[in-house]
Amino acid sequence: MTIIVHHLENSRSQRILWMLEELGLPYEVKHYRRDPKTMLAPRELRAVHPLGKSPVIEDDGLVIAETGAIIEYLVGKGDGRLGPPAHREAMQRWRFWLHYAEGSLMPPLFVTLVLSRIPVMGKVAMKRFQPMVDRHLDYVESELARSPWFAGDQMTAADIIMSFPLEAARSRAGLDERRPASLAWLERIHARPAYQAALAKGGPYAYA
């Protein structure tokens, strides 16, 4: 049965389209546009899930929200492809990044977005907040210097879930040439045919 992806423009749900392309699973995209003034998701998404956020998928009557939960569901749907490697250490790394992306890295990046929209005082606050962001970016850089992908030598769903925060950091939070391993990783994921195919189907995405 075809999976339905409720996809909001310029959002984290782009990762779900990419994962579906990597897995070769059939899917349909239902597009939603942000409110041009508030940049929030439209109310129509609340009819799909009470939180009214994206990503949300539907599969055979089952509605699943939250990126990490969707990714784990799709790993099962894809017979384990892009899932945790068999080696115990690599498996733990996969699990760590799956939670770290949304639990630790995205919160400070979201704060940078909010501060960037506050005139004058936002810039002052950002100077004090940036060291926290830098600590995360330095940690990610050190890990990518160890291996080409987050969970080891092969690309997995850990890389897919980490794509949005690092793309956002490249756009607005100081990820630049001082961290070459992170930039090289971004180049690798952007060059993948499945990533490009997902962009074509997803529509506007400011971070690619």
UniProtKB/TrEMBL annotation:
Gene Ontology CC: one annotated term: cytoplasm
EC code: 2.5.1.18
A molecular function (GO) term: glutathione transferase activity
Catalyzed reaction equations: RX + glutathione = an S-substituted glutathione + a halide anion + H(+)
Signal peptide: none
Location of the GST N-terminal domain: 1-82
GST C-terminal domain location: 87-208
Keywords carried by this UniProt record: Transferase
Superkingdom as given in the UniProt entry: Eukaryota
Keyword presence, Transferase: yes
Protein family: Belongs to the GST superfamily.
PANTHER family: GLUTATHIONE S-TRANSFERASE 1 (PTHR44051:SF9), GLUTATHIONE S-TRANSFERASE-RELATED (PTHR44051)
Protein name in the entry: glutathione transferase
